[in-house]
Every structure is written in structure tokens, then in C-alpha cells.
Amino acid sequence: MTRTHGREYLAIPGPSVMPEAVLRAMHRAAPNIYAGELVEMTHSLIPDLKKVARTKHHATFYIGNGHAAWEAALSNVAAAGERVLVPATGRFGHGWADQARGLGIETEVIDFGKSSPVDMNRVADALKADKEKKLKAVLFTHVDTSSSVKNDVKAMRLVLDDLGHPALLMADCIASLGCDRFEMDEWGADVMVAASQKGLMTPPGLGFVFFNDRAAEVRSKMACVSRYWDWVPRSNPTQYFMYSGGTAPTHHLYGLRVALDMMMEEGMENVWARHDRLSRAIWAAVEQWGQGGSLRFNITDPALRSRAVTALRMDAPDATRLREWTESEAGVTLGIGLGMAEPGTPESHGFFRLGHMGHLNPQMVMGMLGSIEAAFNALDIPHGSGALSAATRVIAAG
Questions:
Q1: Residue 220 burial (CB < 10 Å; 0-12/13-18/19+)?
Q2: Residue 284's domain spans which residues?
Q3: Quick one: 241 and 349 in the same domain?
Q4: What is the phi/psi pair of residue 341, to 5°?
């Protein structure tokens, strides 16, 4: 007999919970794609996307996911045979590097493992070794969704500037945009990629590429760029279809408009503060549970953790047992330990993740934490006491 009557809660690190207002906005007949409401509404998205990214430069969108945004960004600044540097922390830096290799771009990967941030000294050494300054870009993951580590984009910019290296700084904010503070212009990112299904609270299907004038100059010297990935017509369209390289993703755009309205009404500073407060509540609970059992953070230093996702470790197979119980008995789906161990191995059952991004409030977080507490008790998994009280104190303190 199922015990999950009522609304289920998807507490994975994307797709995130979609607001009812976003879903209602998308529930409509297909619009005219040549003139009228859709055209004007699409024009209005660009300034607000720039506000979320904290840039005054260029914003483009593509029909696709984060992987599409990776390829779109690369296609505009690096050609086959050219080189990029990839500091990888967790899984997704390796994914972006593989995307580059598929385009014929040579990659130099520095692997920092699955529980550590980028070591700027090692990156600086790699840049110093590039005597002829052939590296076109540094592919830098702001937040790795698998490990939950948050890397310092501003510090990476300072390394490049101190060395006088011309490589573009390209930031992957797919997990972090709209959750963790990100300041594209202030921190000096030349290119940033994101997607719709996480902090932007819209279904999967839109990828975003933001770029500054320095990146635009690099694009202008490219001998050949795919007609579809080319960001030039998308960022300055003379006809409406150029925004999308063809037929617009109409219903996604309607949903995105409402999601951006919600973010603009709340204000980006408040959006970041809300994510910070709810993250700290989750971490307070995890700290208490960990005092009496095997549960522990993948990233031990709170300053290095994302405010969008928390990766956790515990004795196998208890992580899988816990996830299965919360989903079947409480209607709460927790994230798998993506990229932490080979799928299907005994070790893979010792990891899980908590997604806390986008459309989220204290009662949702407390419901998730209460379900996890119930799972610990139902499965006789050793754990410390006082987790829910610790979380409520953080929420009450504001």
C-alpha cells in the first residue's frame, strides 16, 4: 500500500520544483510565431536574463540543455586544433572537456578529484607553462552538481590577469545561476553558460550563453562557426526567428517570463539570501545526524559548498536504502550520487544529494528533512539526534 498520496516533492538538483504560475503560463495554445504578443514578450526576457547573470553585455538562448550551452559557447571561441584548459572538480568539468574534444579542440585537464575545489596555484602553473599563450580558454565550473563544490570565479580571473594570459574565462553556472551568488561582470567572466531547469525554475529545454565584448572579439576572428550555434545573430537579431535559430521554444519562453518576473519581484540579493538560509538549515541537520552515524558532507568546508545542492556520503548501501524509503514511503525523491562511483558498484550505494534550488521555502525544506529523519528511524540507520531542531533554529534566526 502506497503512503505517498498528495503532492510528491522532487528534491533532486534539477530539474527543480516548477512554480504553479510557470506551469499555468505554459498551459496555452500555440501562439503566432511571427508577430504580436510572443515577439514582444521575448524581447523583454533579455534585459532580465542579464540582471540574473549580473552583466551588461550579451545574452542568448538556445533550444537545448546545459550540454547544448557548453557546445554553443565553445563553437564561438575555439576551433578544431586549438587548446583549452579545464580544471575539473567532480564530474561536469570532465563533461565539458569531452564536449570540447568532440569538436576537435585539444583539452588539458587538471583533475582535482571529487571533494576539493580548484587549486589556483596548480592552474597558474599550467598557464605559466603555456609559454606561447596558445590556450584559448579556461573552462571553469562555478558549481559542480555532482560534488556540490563551489569554485572561486573571481580568483580565477585574478590568476589570468596576474599572468597576463589572454585565455577567455568561461564559467559553467548551470547548477548555480539564480541560487549561488554570481557576478559575471564584477568577477570578470568572459563567457557564462546556464540552463533553464535549475535556479530559473523552468522545464528543461533552454540553454543560455552570456558573453562580453572580449569574447565577441574572439568570435569575430573565428574562420567558421556553425550557423545554428553562432551567437552573433542570436544576440542581435534583425528578425525574430534569429533568437532561436528557427522556430521559437514558445511555451518555454512563456514559462521563463513568469519565472523571471518572480525573481525580479523578489530581487537577486533576496534570492541569494533565501538559498543561503535554507542551505544552512539543511547543513545544520546533516551535522547533527552525522554525530551518531556515518553520514558526512562530501565538501567539509561550508564556504566551499554550493547553495543549490549538497552532496553527502554514508556507509553503503544505506544511501540507496534511504533514498528508496523516502521516495516510496514519503513521496520525497532525493538525488543519486552522480559521478561519485561507477553505477551499479557497491560503492555507488554510499552517496546521495539534496537539491535545494529555485522555487523553495522553509516548509518544503523541513518536509524533506523530516522525511529523511523518518527514513533513518524506519531503516534503523544510526544517526545523531536533534537535526530538525537545529534546522528550525537556523530558519527562525533568518
A1: exposed
A2: 9-16+267-397
A3: no
A4: -155, 160
Instruction: Please give the distance of CA 320 from its chain centroid, rounded to a whole number.
Output: 24
Say what the pLDDT of residue 5 is: 79
Spatial CA neighbour of 26 closest among 204, 261, 254: 254
Q: Write the CB contacts of 21 (distance below 8 Å, at least 6 apart in sequence).
A: 258, 262
Same domain, 155 and 259: yes
Cα separation, 198 vs 175, whole angstroms: 6
Residue 154 sits in the same domain as residue 303:
no
Q: Note whether 211 and 253 are same-domain residues.
A: yes
Final residue before a domain boundary, out of 212, 240, 265: 265
CB count in 10 Å sphere of residue 204:
15
CB 254 within 8 A of CB 28: yes
- Look at residue 2 in the predicted model and tell me its pLDDT: 57
Residues of the chain with pLDDT under 70: 1-4
- Look at residue 3 in the predicted model and tell me its pLDDT: 66
| pLDDT value of residue 7 | 87
Alpha-carbon distance of 351 to 114, in angstroms, equals 12
In the chain, the number of structural domains is 2
Which cell numbers hold the place of 144?
A: 559542480
Q: Hey, which bits of the chain come out as E strands?
A: 9-11, 58-63, 83-88, 106-111, 135-141, 168-172, 191-195, 206-211, 296-297, 309-313, 332-336, 351-355
Side by side, which strands form the sheet with 191-195?
58-63, 206-211, 191-195, 168-172, 135-141, 83-88, 106-111
- Based on the fold, state whether residues 328 and 239 are members of the same structural domain: no
Residues 79 and 164 placed together within one structural domain of the fold = yes
What is residue 15's predicted lDDT score, i.e. its pLDDT? Answer: 96
Full-prediction pTM beyond 0.90? Answer: yes
